[in-house]
Amino acid sequence: MAPARNSTVTVVTDYKPPPPPSAAKPPPPRAPLHPLCAALIFCLAVAAATEGAIIALLLLRSEEEEAPALAVKRCGVGGAGKCMLIGAPSCDAWFSDEANWACDFGHACCAATDKPVISIRQAVEGNCEDLDGSDVKGVARSSMCSADAASNATACDVELSCGSIVIAATLIFAGADDMQTAAAWLTSVLSTLEGATDFWGLPPGFTIAQIPTLSVWAAEAHDAECPTCSCGDRIGWLQDSSDGPQVNEVDACARVAGAEFPAACGGCNPGLRVTMAPVALNGGRIAYILTAAGALPGYTSGGTATADRRTIYYFLPDGDGSAEPTYNGDRWPIVYVPQGATITADPSVTAIVSSRVTTRRLIDGSFVEAEVLLVNGRPAYQYSMDTTPEAANGNGLGDVWFWFEESISQEELPPPAPILASSPPPPSPPPVASPPPRTISNECPAASPACTAPSGQDWVITTSCTIQAGSYSARKVLISDGAIVSVEQDASVTMDLSGGLLVGSNSELWIGCESTPFTGTWTLTFNGRREDLGNTERWLSVDYSDYGLPPRFEVWANALVASHGARLEIHGAPKTSWTRLREDAGVGATTLTLEEGPVGWAPGDEIVIAGTGVNGGSERATVASVAGDAVTLQNGLTNFHEGSWPGRGARLNGEVGMLSHNVRFTSGFDLGACENAFGGTGLSARTDEQTKNSCFGGNVAFLQHSIVHVENAEFSKLGQALVMGRYSLHFHLAGDASGSYLRGNGIHHSNNRCIVLHGVFNAELEGNVCVDNRGHNLYLEDGIEVGNAVVGNLVVNPRSSATICTDKIGAEGGAAGIWITNPNNTFTDNAVVGAAFGAWFTFPTVDDSHPFTGEKRGQLGGVFGASAAYFRDPLSGYGPAHWVVQQEQTRTPVAAFHRNTFKDSARMGITVDFRVHDSEDAYIPCLDKAAYVESSCPTCANVGHTFSWGPATYDVSAPPAQREYQPAKQTFEDIIVAYTRSLYGEGFSYWATGGLVSFERSIFVDNQQGSSLGFTGECASGIAFGRGGANVQFSKALFLNGPAPFKLYDGGYHCVDCRWAGLDHLVTMRPGSPGNVNGVLLERSAPLGWIGSDRDDPLLGWIWDSNKVDIAPAAVEVANLVDWTSGFIQNSWQGEDVNLVSTDGLGGTVRGGAFTQWVRSGDPGANQGWGYGAIVNGAPSFKQFYPCMGNVYHWCGDGRSCEPHAYGRDVPGAPWL
């Protein structure tokens, strides 16, 4: 969870801590001022949001003044090379017209003409005019330049300039587009100023050419001109000199090594450094807080960390001296120490700085061991909304986040520099409601007396006790009054309940613990009947008002509920959750050879062997014995399961998952009767009540402020059919669930989903196995869910249902392996086999919305279902002003979507489209065969092109109406989509309207239907991919076996370094399309093996080793490149734009590497060497039906021009340029 920034903090931006006495360095000797200029300008420039604009610090010094004056201005108007900065040290008014300050206006008038004046100029053109066209003030120019007649100040041409103007030019260059031109011009100007080496503030030996402006140093890194200035000298000057910027060592080294003198200083690595910085608080108090630089960058389980210097914080629930970070959610990245780096602290830091190795931390999508930074024994975090080194916007957020503060009196440090004005931050959110902090231990609870078996129908436990071996039966079990109930370690326990089990506030149930997993057996059977729903005394009830939460009363029938503030610990015997085959397993085979020897598997365990596409479906089997990586089955297999793909193709091998565990929760209904009630795919309104009655299973829910650690347990026959909110496993309006997890569990034969994330933030789902569960399996319910980690789960054979209408298989829907209503979550290393949709992205939004515009700022999102009212109520700890209820999901990039595998999907592999309007219906209208109507069927999938995803960067904490957006490329790494079928209407391996997705190193194999794209974001893709008109990008992608992977429809493709083999064709048309398409653009892409280095490329060589792909020999033509036999395109006016382009003759393998464009030939029956219906266009021309052009969607981000990407201007080597 990422609360909004704190409004009471103002950042002091240029505090300069005194060096320790032992480390003090004298400043470089100050040379007299050059007679030509009475000013030094030291500019530190960085690119701002608008092209050509910069933010810069302008320091001016006159002979009469000791302290430099400071002015900061951000230019947001005007083109490249026109950014304006003006000022003088002793003027009555710094700026002539504050109200009209902008990059296209620019006079500075000084009260006295004998003071330095800097006039703004257009550097590339090299004139001395102000940007408004008027000449520089004559008197001022005379005063500045008359001392040197050789400067020719009157003409002031490009070759001759006075010093002040030259330095101003370096500022302008920082915002210029053409750095080479700017640098060349600057060199010619500087040649007239040879010997001007005594500018104030430069270290000895520096020349004017080395004035430390980052952009100039990057363009003109003249290391050889300063042989006496070592890397250490430069770092020391940047760090310590009174004339320098006085940045910390890490920042100084990064500047020198990365931008300024790469040849001399590459590889400088000072490690992780903790420093101190002041912030000014309301009331005038100065707090001295800790910052850290050099952290391990990349995605952590708390968000994306940066190596830049940032304020560091602690998380109150971690506890004193815990040394283990418990928060693993959104926007609070954990500070990890780079491998081998040292940790140092400034002498002024009195806190104890150290580190320790933590395990199972999520870094860049994988759980690994890493060293976390500790301050006084507490784990350190960054706040991702802090964008400057000393920013401290996270302090006090949620009453759980606080900066590390040094106890230093005001007299110990010099007063801070003046505070720079900035726009006020948004209002602070209301405090997050939470129970008092409590110590969280992973050790088993202390021994307690035996629990007394129930004497009546309800078992009420109010004192801590241990459940011992035996069989127990009750209506319901209520654990309350802070009781801690554990199960005897080796006990065999069975429990039958007809009502449910409630773990009350501050109470706990333990079945094993992390350090000592449970070694006995536990089976709880839910035996409640739906016919008894009217008898509320039978069931569990929760009144949210009892916990100070929004008024809400819920009855939980046939359920296990961890109530508000409860703790549920379930730790079954450790087992390998799932793995893959290493060898083929044929029909009748009784032995499986696995990738690894499974841990904990034993005779009698039930496993699932996932299907491998065209060779047959998934099936279950029972383990007879295990020896190393060989598993012997009690009976032979029914289907063939592939297991011999090598290398990167190993994820195409069949998955093998564990279902059986020694801790088991199940239901007593008759599974056969339930299957008959569902009736296959023929579920209808007539069977609605029958199905609900026959499939009334138990359900497990975790409420707000509960602590949940559940691993290596089995959940079978749970969930209540066709009922919202009564799922197998369910985080329910849970709020921040940081530290809670579901790991390595087997969930199968559920009547209602596998695992549901509902109104929850920062939960972890890892390594769970979901098999034969009805409806969308891994399900984000209301679209508010953020920061959750869905990692390494296996989903097999999701089945049709109708809890919401998209659950029902058919032309408009079908169960998804992963249903995603909010992209701000992590999805990595998951495998989905046999779903209707592998992953389905569809988010809350508003009517008539288009994310690829600046329209409807702050509105393109929303919250479905119960979460909308719950989290807008301040009693939830969030409230209407909190960012979690002001999300714009359709403008939010995915946190991570990497290494996921989607196989054997019945309809689509990955889908981005088909808007729904809510997460629940009053009834199930689709069972009455109702079509989509927003008012009466809000959960029905709308037709295509009704939802569009336009990921952008923006400040989520900014007031919604003031947000600014820039298009953001989303990288989906190492995705596999294979064996997609079309069992219910038309299907696609990938269908998207929007998304700006770049598939990096993806593999697409034998999909019966290729990908197709809706049109949206044609200009934004120019920013995201560098190619306008492309709606998706593939980089180093592989397309192997089967029908054409590109099925042209509307949107365009950009393919870089792609390879293909074994295909019927590379490109074809979507049936019925008349040709209104953007086509395919290939760069450095060719048939596999036609480029000589392919065989030795580790990304490709495994394909030869597999012997499963027909790799065609190189030839002068590709006879099956395209299939344009469709009569629709050969005779339609839209078909004029059908085209395939290779910028380099298929990577230099055909036509001498020439730019080549294939278009329709007019004869679908003729193959002229490239496929039927295609011909090489002798005069290539720009062809896109939906180009980046001047219409309503001509948008490339706020303040950015689309012209470089319009009408194919960004296609390299295009003849039409």
Shape: globular
Strand content: 25-35%
What radius of gyration results from the CA coordinates? 33 Å
Helix content: under 10%
Oligomerization:
single chain
Q: Extract low-pLDDT stretches.
A: 1-231, 257-269, 409-437
> Span between N and C termini?
48 Å
> In DSSP terms, counting alpha (H) and pi (I) runs of 4 or more, how many helices?
14
The major sheet is characterized as: 28 strands, parallel
Q: Name the structural class.
A: mainly beta
According to DSSP, the number of beta strands is: 73
Mean pLDDT: 77
Summarize the structure.
It is found in: Cell membrane. The chain has 14 helices and 73 strands.
Can you walk me through this structure?
- There is one protein chain.
- The chain is built from 14 helices and 73 strands.
- The chain has 1217 residues and is mainly beta.
- Mean pLDDT is 77; it is low at 1-231, 257-269 and 409-437.
- The chain has a 28-stranded parallel sheet that branches.
- It is 9% helix and 26% strand.
- Among the domains are: 230-268, no CATH class; 273-403, no CATH class; 463-571, no CATH class; 667-683 and 699-845 and 863-913, no CATH class; 969-1019 and 1027-1061, no CATH class.
- It is globular.
- Helix 5 (231-240) crosses helix 6.
- A hairpin with a 6-residue loop joins strand 2 (46-47) and strand 3.
- Residues 433-583 form the G8 domain.
- Residues 1-28, 413-441 are annotated as: Disordered.
